[in-house]
Amino acid sequence: MLAFAPLHDTVSAAGSALSWLTELLEPLAGGAATAAAIVLFTIAVRLLISPLTVAQVRGERRRAALAPQVRDLQQRYADDPATLQREVFTLYREAGANPIAGCLPLLLQAPFLLVLYRLFSTSEGGTGLLDERLVGVPLGHHLSDGLAGAAGPLFGVLLVVLLAVAWWSSRRARRASAAVGTVAGTPTEGPGAATLGRLLPLLPFTTVLVALVLPLAAVIYLVTTSVWSALEQVVLRRPQAVSSPAGR
């Protein structure tokens, strides 16, 4: 049990923070105060990891800018794959373009989702948040508990939003992949590269599948973080204006 003590303490701290936010928002949000507190909590989490997201986008732009040099290395070491791989890794490292940095924001969100799941599926929070309701549906309610009353429409709306964001994210990922293309000799190349390229656009839909087994509170978290991610994509990945020599 000692191994889980830090998680229990974190869940208790999150429960206290959500209770405080709920009390703060109750005069404005009324019965939806706890749901609003979850949304604000999610936004705070995303703001905390936003520097990593910005770094991820910058890294992707660095890798795109290095494409001509990578193609030059391909031609130079066409008959020496080992040297080609080593030179490309060196080029990426010197330019600060980490090919796996894109996974960090997603990985860092996982502990927060675990905390919220335990908070709203167990009594660890110790604050009674499990019994709070949104339009009459307990925040600890699962789809498997039934769709009677407002549960059906509420879960339906949330899942539709998740599905729409997943479709948009998948479409954007496919367009980005087609625009960049596959660059042979890069650190991401390998026997499973083609399969990975087909699977990556499908990853956003895993959020919808996960939501099918999570309590309402965690689904609210997923919807908020998914919408936030989509807005980040629009803002951070918008085309950059290229200044002309005359304007310098």
From TrEMBL:
GO MF annotations, alphabetized: membrane insertase activity
Annotated TM spans: 28-49, 100-120, 147-168, 202-223
Record domain Membrane insertase YidC/Oxa/ALB C-terminal: where: 36-237
Cellular localisation: Cell membrane; Membrane
A Pfam cross-reference name: 60KD_IMP
InterPro entries membership: YidC/ALB3/OXA1/COX18, YidC/Oxa/ALB_C, YidC_ALB_C
Keywords from the named record: Cell membrane, Chaperone, Membrane, Protein transport, Transmembrane, Transmembrane helix, Transport
A GO-annotated cellular component: plasma membrane
GO biological process assignments: protein insertion into membrane; protein transport
UniProt keyword Chaperone present: yes
Topology in the lipid bilayer: Multi-pass membrane protein
PANTHER family: CYTOCHROME C OXIDASE ASSEMBLY PROTEIN COX18, MITOCHONDRIAL, OXA1
Subunit structure: Interacts with the Sec translocase complex via SecD. Specifically interacts with transmembrane segments of nascent integral membrane proteins during membrane integration.
Protein family according to the UniProt entry: Belongs to the OXA1/ALB3/YidC family. Type 1 subfamily.
Described purpose of this protein according to its UniProt entry: Required for the insertion and/or proper folding and/or complex formation of integral membrane proteins into the membrane. Involved in integration of membrane proteins that insert both dependently and independently of the Sec translocase complex, as well as at least some lipoproteins. Aids folding of multispanning membrane proteins.
UniProt protein name: Membrane protein insertase YidC
